[in-house]
Every structure is written in structure tokens, then in C-alpha cells.
Protein 1
Amino acid sequence: MSEPAATGSGRREVTVSDVAAAAGVSKATAARALGDYGAVSDAVRDRVLGAADRLGYRPNALAKTMSTGRSNTLGIVVGDIENPFFAQATRGAADVAAAAGFDLILSNSDEDLETEAKAIGVQLAKRVDGLLVAAASSVETQNLRTVIDAGRPLVLFDRTAQGVEADSVIAANRSGARELTSLLVDAGHRQIAFISTTTHPADAFARTDVLPTSSVAERVEGFLDAMTAGGIEHPERHVHLNARREGVERMATRLLTGADPVTAIVASDSLIALGVFRAARELGLQIPRDLSLVAFDDADWTGVATPGITVMAQPIHEIGAEAAELLIRRVRGDGRPPVTRVLKQHLIERESVAPPSR
Amino acid sequence: MSEPAATGSGRREVTVSDVAAAAGVSKATAARALGDYGAVSDAVRDRVLGAADRLGYRPNALAKTMSTGRSNTLGIVVGDIENPFFAQATRGAADVAAAAGFDLILSNSDEDLETEAKAIGVQLAKRVDGLLVAAASSVETQNLRTVIDAGRPLVLFDRTAQGVEADSVIAANRSGARELTSLLVDAGHRQIAFISTTTHPADAFARTDVLPTSSVAERVEGFLDAMTAGGIEHPERHVHLNARREGVERMATRLLTGADPVTAIVASDSLIALGVFRAARELGLQIPRDLSLVAFDDADWTGVATPGITVMAQPIHEIGAEAAELLIRRVRGDGRPPVTRVLKQHLIERESVAPPSR
DNA sequence: AAACGGGTTGAGACCGGTCTCAACATAACC
DNA sequence: GGTTATGTTGAGACCGGTCTCAACCCGTTT
């Protein structure tokens, strides 16, 4: 009497109706038993669940979303998942999401506004319940407005955005940069370069310029703070952007071999620091004797390189986790005004800072 | 006459019907214009598109999937997105997917069968068109069968699975391990440990044991090949598994300080190598004088650590990309028998190998 | 003038769930 | 015994798209 197990391939999916028919009940009742809602007698429930099992029923989450309007899915848009910073933040968010019963859809923006727009469009089309975004630009915020206009909760992480009514979770970048730079200034350096891959239309950086990435903008502020406090004039000229265009190693080489070479570098992230480190080695320069180097993010290599690199560690995992928590709260209906959470960074001193040799 | 732009929040989504009404055409016609299929006169199309724009229409991808049966979405299940290997493979897959118009849904399995089952269940419920999986186990394959039974194309990457009818993309791990180990044997080492975090029920490893992760199993084979070729007897006793349970650093410390300390270590991945590197430093051992170390994967740090670590680099990006390509081909209806693509690894010799000092 | 053909359009079923509402059975109460 | 409460079930609308099919318009052909 028992039927053969579901076999073959390519055949139609088993639906609630199929299960209902097999169990000899109505579709509504079968749905109640399968979806675990409403009232169903124990006998019927067993019968339905048995039939479902026998037929190999798998619920269709999309159909469910269609009728309930909730997908139990969050979207996350990062610059590049290959970047350890984003990988860690994503993991932090994924864990919180999973614990709360949410799935995660991931997209890369490549830090490009158009790609970001496409990614956000896809996420909205998939009716995510809310969106986590490391905004490609803190200034051009139309992509973010799209999310808000669509009525979807939005939480920004790592970067804020001007005039966008959304929660954000960021690190205390300005004070972090200040502290990091002070280390160099206090060691006696005057020729200190700040390097970032953030794009900037002008060749030179001016104090009033607005940078597209708020986290970098804040680090630049902190850098300038410390430089100014150290009595260094016109510190803006030591800010070097667009490092991706020129190539980090090339830029570092240029700064280290020019007419007025730098004796210390603040790297805006660990990938940049890696480029600088390689360039220095290539040039035969010894850290910290010939060059002092500090950076953001406690990447793997910074601890095992020789010498160890002094870094400002960020609570990356927490940034992602906290952002996901805020988002889930919004999804669940929290209507309080937007908040900005600022997480502390902490200094890990290693051996990459010394007084300048010239 | 012009209406106010779509405003407010929380209101119903704009649907095809709304657009149709605003444009004064039927739902069917509006859908044709919006979905760019079927025949629509230019005049009507303009009218519909104009109305859609005015109302802020955003298509509902779920509804589309419901009626077409296609989601244009691939699922990917990795061990842990924070692991650079998986991050890179994911990126490779994401790029290929995006280029072909597919989105990606990501899940972490934590290398755990139950978590993997849940992840795959979610992906299937979301009706992904196909699934990319780095199987948590190459032996217990019920989770993978679930995918096949559901009639969804499946492509495995990094690891194969016994008796599962699916394409796979892996690296030539056995020959890679052989080459890596030979370096040590040829340098004169006899006490060489192979370390992996792969789980294994027994305390000791026996040649006939089947390991849960095929990539590691193959590396062990290659290791044994080279050890045997080098005339080392009972090389199995040098295979150390379950490193996660004990802790990599702890295990390395134990192996380096025991009664019969090892003089060389083959690390099954870069994370393990990092643990070994740290343990060695902690013990005051110098690489390569006191310990020779080789590993899989050309992680960032292996190039900048002192000394540089000799590694077997894998084409990680390509593994992900190739897997996605195969999957998309399957999704599009390719019915050829399953293939296994084996990608070459290549050796990067640095300074972490020297003859044993004892 | 009738028949034919292509281009356009609309009505309505369908995908697979949820959910409202009414119908009915049975038990509890007065 | 009648009324009310409670539990269980089924019919059918609904979510927002796609798609089939029939109807219609208008120009051509015979």
C-alpha cells in the first residue's frame, strides 16, 4: 500500500494541495498543519505530516513571502567580500541574522555607485525585509534614498551618509587616527603621509574637500588633528588619495624616494599597509629604522610580519553584528528616531614605530 | 495635472495593476510593457513606462519567480565566509554569476552537517536555480542528495563527494601535497608532521581511514606518498587531525616540544600555518633553522612574514568561477554526465625550508 | 465582399502559499 | 432542551507577477 518515495527529476514540486489530497483533507487544513499555525487536531496533523514526509514536501518560501509580505531575509551590500574587513563584518551580521531566523543575501558594490544601485535594486526586488549597506558614497546618497522610499528599513555600517534617515554603526575613526598619528608625531616624525584608496577628483587634497567615504574622511580629520597639534603646517599636503589608481606600491615608492621623502606612513587600511610594506622591502628600507608604519585593522599579517605592525584594531565582527541587530529591531517595528552607534577602536602597539633616522 | 511623486512610507507596493490603471490599459498589457515581452505598441509602452516611473514601480522578483519557476539566483554554501579561501572562491563565483545575470545567496555551514542541512533547506525553499556547495562532508552526503532529489542542479567545489552525481571543481591536492612534502624530505627531514583541522573520530590516523573532507584526504595521500617515497616508515603516525579541538597553536607546541620533536610541518591550510608560525615564535624557534614550514594557499601574510613561507598556491578565484560556470550551464539545461574539473596548484618557494639542525 | 494575416489588446487562469470567514460538531452551561 | 462556547474544518479570495487564448483592428489578397 505504501507508495514509492518521490523519485525522478524535473517533475513538478510537491505542494500543499498535493499533500492535502494525499492526506484526504482540505488545502487550508494541510497548510495549517504544515505551517504550524491555526488549530488542527492531532490526528489530522499526524496524517498531514506523514503524507508530506512521504511525498517529500518542501515549502516554497517565495509563496509564503508573497502572501505574508515578509521574507525573513536581510540584504547586505559590501564593497568587496574578498576584503577581510567586509568578510568579518558579514560574518558578524550573518550570525546575528541566523540566530534571529533571518537569511542573508549578499552583494558586492565594488565601491561603485552604479553597481551599488543595481545590487540594491536586486535586493529590493527580492523583497528583503531590510538592508545592511556599507555605502559606496557617503555623499551621493540616492541609492540609499531608494531603499527608504521603498519603505524598507536600512542600516548603514562602517560609513554614515549625509542626510539619510537611517541607523548607522561605525567606529571612532577620528580619535583612532589621531592616536595613531600622534604616535608618529611624538616619535619625532614631520614628514608623515596618510594613504587611502578613496577616490578624489582633485590631485591635491584641501581641508574643505568632502571625501566620498565618511570613515576615511574621519580618519583624515584625525590625521590632520594630530599633525596640527604637533605643529606641522599645511598637513593637508600629506594626505594622499586615489591610491588604487596609481597602485599602492607605486605610490608608496614615490613617496619614499622623492625629493623630500616621508619618514612615516599612516595606512588607511590593512591592504594599503600591505602594499606599503612590500614597497619598503622592495626598496631595501627597514621598518622601523628607515620608515615607521601604522595602519588600521589588525589583519593576520600585521602580527606575524617582521617587524610587527602597530595597528588600530576595529571591532569588525561587532560592527556587522550590531548593524544586524539594529536592522532586525527595525524590521520588527521599532520606530524610534535613527541612532548612530560609535564603537571604540583599540591600539595594538608592535614594533613598526621608531624615531626618524634623518 | 502631474501627480505628486510617490511618498510616505509603509504603504502598499506599487504593482503592475496600479501601473495599468494609471496608464489606462489592462494588467496584461502593462505587464508586457514592463516585462519587455510579447508585443506592445510604442505609444502604449511609453504610456505604461511613464506611469510606472511616476508611481515608483518596482518589480517583485518573487512574484516573477512564482509564475516563471526561475529565480535567476544561485545559492552558495561555504564553510565560513571569514576564511579567505571561501571569501575568494565566493567572489569568483559572484563575478561569474553577476555577469550571467544571476544573484547569489550565501550561507555558512560551519563545516557542520546539521547547519549545512539547514542552509541547504533555506536555499531550496528560496527556489534557487542551482546550488554551489563546499560539502561539509565528502562521505555523509545526504544533504547533497537532498539537492539532487529536489531536482536542482548542484556543483561541488573544493571537495568532491562519494557517489553524488554532480559536477565538481577541485584542485590537484594530492600532487600538490606530494610536491610540498618532497621539499621537506629532500632537505633531509624525517620527523615531518601533517596538520589539519579536519575532524576524525579516532585518536590516531590509519591508512584505511576515510576523512570527511576529500581535499584534506587527498593532501594526506600526497603527504604519505612523499613520505613513503622518502623511505620513512609508518608515515601515518605523522598525520595529526582534529587540530581545532586541541587548538592549532597548542598542537604545534606539543609536536615541537615532545620527546621526539618534529623538525618540519606541512600545514593543510594557511590558517593552520599561521597557528604554527605563532607557536614557533612563542617557543623561540627560528624558521627555517629550527623548524621548516610549508603550507597550502598563498595567503597575504605568507609573503610578508619573516621568513617568507613556502606555499602551494591554489587558483581559488578560478575554483569559484569555474564552479559557477558549470552550474549556470546546468541551470540552462546542459544534460551531459557530471564532470570533475581538476585545477593545477603551483609552488611558491620562499625561505621557510632548510635542512634539519638535528 | 469575403477571406486572410499580422499586430495589439484584454480577460482570466495560474504559481503555492496564507488567511478570513462561515459551517459544523461537540461539550458546557443554565 | 436550548443557548453558548470552543475546536476543527473547508471554501475561496488574495499576494503580484506571467502566460494562454480569444477578440479585435486594419490592411491585403482573391
Note: The longest strand of chain A covers residues 73-78.
Protein 2
Amino acid sequence: MTTSPSAGTTASSQVFEALKHDLIRGRFAAGEKLAISALKTHYGVGLSPLREALNRLAAYGLLEQENQRGFRVPAMRLEELDDIAGLRTQLECMALTQAFQNGDSEWESQLLAAAHRLRRADEQPERIEEWEQAHLRFHRALLGACGSPWLLRFIGQLHDQFDRYRRMAPPNPGIRTTLDEQHAALVELALARDIQGARALLDTHIRLSHEVARGCCSAAP
Amino acid sequence: MTTSPSAGTTASSQVFEALKHDLIRGRFAAGEKLAISALKTHYGVGLSPLREALNRLAAYGLLEQENQRGFRVPAMRLEELDDIAGLRTQLECMALTQAFQNGDSEWESQLLAAAHRLRRADEQPERIEEWEQAHLRFHRALLGACGSPWLLRFIGQLHDQFDRYRRMAPPNPGIRTTLDEQHAALVELALARDIQGARALLDTHIRLSHEVARGCCSAAP
DNA sequence: ATTTCCCTAAAAATCGATTTTTTTATCAAT
DNA sequence: ATTGATAAAAAAATCGATTTTTAGGGAAAT
């Protein structure tokens, strides 16, 4: 039995994940029109699974689908960044409150584990994607106990949108250190169930990335 | 020049809209597995546009996509209904507050127009779909001035999910009259910019439909 | 009688080719 | 030179057929 790297998955799902990642990390220019045949060869799939992935990404909000004119990477607009950041702050603060109320010891364990992985990833500043993944998982773990699947779904979607803007900015060790100190502090506040303190810090935490992205976004176009 | 009924639209988008409507109004049984070839003939399209529509609907949350096992209508779960209703209340109250702060006279005009259409639709109780459409537009008009496209997007998505549960219940003239009185009252509160009063009424408004759907949902499975 | 394995039928996913629509380029007329 | 129509080229959308995977039934073995 050969365990291929794509065992149990459809080609469509694989392209979806690969394209999603590439869109968030900024592989394509904002506003760029996607050349479908080029994508076909790049991701090594046929037309059908590729188009299915593109349709899913458009429904998710990482692509825009124009009437009979194919798919386009959404433009970066300062106004939209502010919308995303503001809403993300509100929704994550909601989820945080609920997670602090519902969270059990299993939640605490998962949070500590995620925080540890994030610290370790921080020791290897050159491996950016590992840190990004650990970062995403940490935030998921922090809010995971909120008890509302739909809230978590929307927060995840906003997080992806936010990251598209945040990752425009070049890596900055100083800011990353500050962010990681905030992550550690959030864990302490979570264990202490300090809702007010954690909400304030989460707000500050998002605001910091927001400001960095903002500077980059207003400079770009 | 012949103006076909589908001018300027792709087959894919048409099936998407038609299927979305049928899923919300409950044409398919909850938990049912969709027979793709049957859908093909029913909606009169080929495989490719149909699959693209199914993929979009899965990303939107109106279908579940299992690994290599096709598409399934999500089950109706009381727990999920409560999640949807609770989150919808919170997000709509957020948007309502912002709409009351940002809304200009154009917003007031659109709201009055939507309210009028809804009253007229209410006079024809047998034309259910017309009322449904007017109802959806009224709620969109009420919150449309909130200034946050992403918040409106999520609210629309939750509204669709909520309606899937709400429409399980058989039409009830008494409840519909109560709902429409609340709509009229919401317009008055909007014009008066009474945020507290409107939030309270919107909460009551959603709670009423929630309770009706709840009774139907717990009885069904 | 129950479990396991294989075989067959059905369904899903993918591919290659065709059709339709949009975009680009060309050329005449004002 | 600009505009407007037309034709060629490119791209998107769709179709029909093929390949792959799953679901179900029945025989062999325990």
C-alpha cells in the first residue's frame, strides 16, 4: 500500500488549499486577473477541479468572480482593512468572553500546547510559514471553547482576510516579539479568567497588526 | 436582439441561485444526499456548471461536502438553530446601532419603501414567496447603512441559515401579523433614531421566529 | 451464524474537446 | 486624429466521455 501525499483527498480540495494559502500570503498581485490555464499547469490539475476551487474561493471571499470574465484577486483597500479589523476585534472579543465562561481544563491544555508551539516557532525567525501556522492555531485555540461554530467560522474567515493585508508588510522582528509577548500574556489572563483584561489586550493585539498593515496598505497603491 | 431570460448570466450562477432558493425553502429533506444526475436534469444544466454551483453552496454553508462522497443537505439540529439565532441577534443589533448612527435621508427613504412593499405583500397571504422576498429586503434596508460590508455579508449568510429553519414551520397568519406590526414599529424607531428601543424590539422580533422554528425543529426528527 | 474478502454496479471526480463570450487588433469613414 | 464597425484571437464556460472511488451483495472461511 502506497501512501501518496494526497491520500483520501480530491484534487479539487488540494488546489483549494494551495490557492487559498497563496492568496493569503500574497503570491498574486492585488487586483490581478487570474490566468486559468497558467494556474492549471502551476498546480498540476485539470480544468474542472481548478474551476471548482476557484468557485469555492470566490464564495469564501478570497476571489472576485465577474460575470463572464473569470476570476480576479480583490483589490487592497484601506477602507476594507479597517472594516475587517474592526469587525474582527468585535467578534473575537465576543468569542473570548464566551470561551472564558465555557472553557474547561481541556481548553486550558490545548491553549498551553498551542502557546508552546508558538514560542518554539518564534525561535526560528527564518521559518515564517511555521510561525504563521502556529500563530493561526494559537488564536483558534484561544477562542475554540466559545461554543458557537458559526462565530468561529466567521472569525476564521475574517482572520484569513486580515492576514492578506497583514502579510503585505515585511517581516519585522521587533513587532513579532511584541506580539508574542502579548500571546503569552493572553494565556495568563485566560488561565486567570480575567475577561476584562484579556479583551483589552486582544483589542491592543489586533490594533498593532492593524496599524502595521495600515501603513503598508496606504503606501502600496 | 433577443433578450433571453438569462441575459448576461452564466448557467453556473443561475443554478446557484435556484438551488440556494430551493435549499432555503426546504425543497430537499434535511440530511439528504443530493443525486447529481437528477439535479442536472431538473435544473436543465450540464455537469460542470452544476458542480461549480454545488461547490459555492458548500463554501457558503448551505451544503456539506464529504470527501469523495458528493454533497449532502445539512441536518437540522436544535443546537445549531440556537447558535444561528443567538449570533444573528448579536450581529444585527451591532449593525442596527451603526445604521442608526450613519443612516442618512436616503437610508430613511429606502427603509420606508421597503416597509411599504412588505405591507403590500402582507395583503396577499397566498403569495408566500413575494412576502419572503419583501421581508428579506426590509431587513437588508434596515441595516444597510451600517457601513460594514463584511458585517452585512455575515448577517445575510446567517439570515439564509435562519430561514432554512424558520421555513420548516407551516405558514401562520397570526404570527405573521405580529411580525409585520414589529416591522412597522421598527421603522418608527429608526426614524426616531431610538437605538435602545429598536435593539430591544429587534431582539424580540428574532426571538419570536426563533421560538416558532424551535418548536418545529424539536418535533421534526 | 458471523466475519472477511472480492466482485459488480453506481456515483463522483476528472479530463479533453467544443461552444460561447469577451478582448484585442484592424481598417474604413467622418 | 477620433470614432465606429468588423474580424481575428484569446479566454471563459460548458459539454460529453473517461477514470477513479465508493457502496452493496454474495461467496468462502472461520
Note: Chain B touches chain A at residues 8-10, 12, 48, 51-53, 55-61, 67-68, 80, 83-84, 86-87, 90, 94, 148-151, 153-154, 158, 161 (CB under 8 Å).
